[in-house]
Amino acid sequence: MHYYRIWADERGDAHIDEVEVEYHEVGDYAAGVPPVAVSDAIGLGEGHFSILPAGWFGDWHPAPSRQYVVLLQGRIEVTTEDSAMIGEPGAVWLIEDTTGKGHRTRVLGDEDAVRFSVTLA
User: pLDDT, tens digit, for every residue of 77-106?
Assistant: First the structure.
């Protein structure tokens, strides 16, 4: 499992990195079940769903807050200063470019993009 981290450098330019999730085995995750692999806990704030309609384009913008975004439906292209990537349902981003130029987001195809976002504490 991986997610994409969008972050801003000291000049305010945004970049995309792929980050692998690290897991550790937990034997007491739930009563009566075998051990499971679990990541470290993440302090979260508020969550919400959002719809970006087909054809939607958000020109250069910083993120409103540090947040995880999970794409549930549709296809999205995210562009930073030095790269671009296309996300499909199931893609997860950690968006941290809350300063500087930010990134661009475009909905691809005829389908609305549906996202679930959770702010970080």
Answer: 999 999 999 999 999 999 999 999 999 999
Model confidence at 40, pLDDT cuts 50, 70, 90, reads very high
Q: Residue 25: name the closest of 46, 45, 39 by CA.
A: 39
For residues 3 and 17, what is the distance between their CA atoms, to the nearest angstrom?
8
Burial of 108 (0-12, 13-18, 19+ CB in 10 A): middle
Please give the structure tokens belonging to residue 112: 């609305």
Strand order in the sheet with 75-79: 57-61, 103-108, 75-79, 84-87
Q: For residues 51 and 120, what is the distance between their CA atoms, to the nearest angstrom?
A: 20
Q: Which residue has the tokens 């999970």?
A: 70
pTM (two decimals): 0.90
Q: What is the largest CA-CA distance in the chain?
A: 52
